[in-house]
């Protein structure tokens, strides 16, 4: 329930402030940012006390790692949000506030879902929500930065989709149709039985794909431009949490596929050795 | 099912090569529409033969989104540009050769998948993947925004083809996410291109050269 509330707050804030102007917009922005921070800290504290939080039949799930990520997003989001009104004092706020909270929402969704496919949708959503924030100043340079950002990240995330498809394929091939709703928790259990060559291939695509969002070479060229051209609060969110969200997505896949060449035999058989699954176990 | 899926994936690849070959924008756009409709045909064939009702819905959405809405937006984006005449002596020979090489590469890369699979559609998977690779090459080498978008869309079509052939349809929420993404990307691209045109009087992205990240 707490997890659902955490996701609903920024989404509702974004929807409500879509048409709001002037002081109302700033108030809504402040309220949403504060509530998001409170929700994020509450989730982090609850999860660290004991059991992982689960909602919608395991569709949303916060374990120890995602609780830390949620806390990070909450704190960096609140700090960036506190700076935003001052930043916007000299320009028309436009759609800044709703897009800002939409951006926070997609990042929270990306770290708090247990569904492999939905995580992909959420990571893609971060690009779509933030592209107009990068271009907020509407200068030539920021336009160029946002064009590059949109194109490179869309290609990257499509590559990650290909990797996701291959994992679905490997799962269905091995275990039949019940894998259709692929969750991280089930994937980690099934991982030892999946065809290692297909999973390796999938992992390559996933690392390049989510690595694009995490700013890994060779798909990193959007990063310096987008970060330097984005308004300061958005740039802070990107550096502080967007890259971590991308890294987490890639690291989750690592625990499912374990591509480390040494020791080769244990590949996929000891999912408890890597960070993501240790927190999930 | 093997014959049908092979034939449709092969036709899709053929259209991709035609897109590489043709230089004029309206012709490429028509070819993209044809490719999307083929993809819808592929989805509905697999849906009927493998008895997946969901795929029929997916096929319908493909027809609406990629066959109707996106081509309209693309035509709107392209309407303001003069159709670029093909410079004399410039042919698409080398690009076509590269595309041929990518088809071979697609077969090599997809070896683990085709050797692991016992699906009736496994032979068509490398063909769809070749579509994706050629689309990626088009996107990377595109000279203007239209070239980039078209390349990206062909890339996406290829990956979607792989998804249909390899999994017989993904969970609904993922499919919905994919369509929403493509649609929103094209709409955002339109907004960005409109702005580029206003700023630079052209959609030649070679003029976007201020930043060197």
Portion in beta strands of chain A: under 5%
User: Given the helix and strand composition of chain B, which structural class is it?
Assistant: mainly alpha
Q: Which residues of chain B sit in consecutive blocks of at least 5 with pLDDT less than 50?
A: 85-89
Strand order of the largest sheet of chain A: 1-2
Annotation keywords:
heterodimer; A: 281 residues; mainly alpha; two-stranded antiparallel ribbon; 11 helices; 2 strands; globular; disordered C terminus; B: 213 residues; 8 helices
Question: Can you put this structure into words, describing what you see?
Answer:
The complex is a heterodimer of chains A (281) and B (213). Chain A is mostly helical. Chain A is built from 11 helices and 2 strands, in the order ααββααααααααα. The longest helix of chain A has 36 residues, at 140-175. Chain B is built from 8 helices and no strands. In chain B, helix 7 (145-167) packs antiparallel against helix 8 (172-200). The N and C termini of chain B lie far apart (48 Å). At the A-B interface, helix 5, helix 6, helix 8 and helix 9 of A face helix 5, helix 6, helix 7 and helix 8 of B.
């Amino acid at each position: 329930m707490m997890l659902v509330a955490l996701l609903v707050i920024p989404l509702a804030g974004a929807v409500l402030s879509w048409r709001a102007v002037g002081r109302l917009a700033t108030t809504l922005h402040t309220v949403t940012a504060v509530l998001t921070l409170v929700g994020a800290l509450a989730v982090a504290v609850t999860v660290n006390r004991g059991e992982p939080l689960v909602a919608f039949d395991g569709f949303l799930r916060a374990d120890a790692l995602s609780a830390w990520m949620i806390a990070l997003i909450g704190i960096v989001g609140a700090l960036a949000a506190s700076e935003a009104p001052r930043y916007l004092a000299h320009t028309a706020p436009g759609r800044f506030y709703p897009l800002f909270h939409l951006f926070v929402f997609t990042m929270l969704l990306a770290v708090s879902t247990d569904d492999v496919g939905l995580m992909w949708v959420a990571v893609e959503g971060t690009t779509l929500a933030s592209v107009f924030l990068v271009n907020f100043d509407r200068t030539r340079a920021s336009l160029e930065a946002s064009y590059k950002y949109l194109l490179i990240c869309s290609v990257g995330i499509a590559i990650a989709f290909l990797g996701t498809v291959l994992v679905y394929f490997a799962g269905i091939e091995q275990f039949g149709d019940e894998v259709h709703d692929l969750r991280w928790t089930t994937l980690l259990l099934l991982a030892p039985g999946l065809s290692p060559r297909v999973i390796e291939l999938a992992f390559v695509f996933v690392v390049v794909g989510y690595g694009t969002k995490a700013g890994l070479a060779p798909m990193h060229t959007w990063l310096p431009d987008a970060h330097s051209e984005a308004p300061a609060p958005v740039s802070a969110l990107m550096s502080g949490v967007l890259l971590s969200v991308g890294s987490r997505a890639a690291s989750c896949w690592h625990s499912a596929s374990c591509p480390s060449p040494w020791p080769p035999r244990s590949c996929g058989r000891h999912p408890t050795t890597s960070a993501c699954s240790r927190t999930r176990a | 099912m093997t014959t049908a899926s092979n034939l449709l994936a092969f036709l899709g690849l053929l259209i991709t090569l035609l897109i590489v070959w043709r230089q004029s924008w309206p012709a490429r756009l028509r070819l993209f529409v044809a490719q999307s409709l083929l993809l819808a045909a592929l989805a509905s064939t697999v849906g009927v033969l493998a008895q997946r009702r969901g795929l029929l819905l997916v096929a319908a959405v493909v027809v609406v989104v990629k066959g109707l809405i996106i081509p309209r937006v693309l035509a709107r984006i392209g309407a303001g540009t003069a159709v670029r005449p093909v410079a004399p002596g410039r042919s698409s020979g080398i690009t076509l050769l590269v595309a041929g090489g990518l088809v071979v590469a697609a077969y090599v890369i997809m070896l683990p998948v085709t050797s692991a699979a016992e699906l009736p559609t496994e032979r068509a998977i490398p063909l769809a993947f070749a579509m994706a690779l050629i689309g990626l090459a088009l996107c990377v080498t595109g000279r203007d925004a239209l070239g980039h978008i078209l390349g990206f869309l062909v890339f996406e079509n290829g990956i979607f083809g792989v998804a249909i052939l390899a999994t017989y349809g993904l969970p609904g929420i993922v499919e919905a996410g994919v369509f929403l993404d493509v649609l929103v990307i094209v709409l955002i691209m339109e907004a960005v291109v409109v702005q580029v045109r206003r700023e630079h009087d052209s959609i030649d992205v070679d003029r976007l050269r201020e930043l060197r990240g």
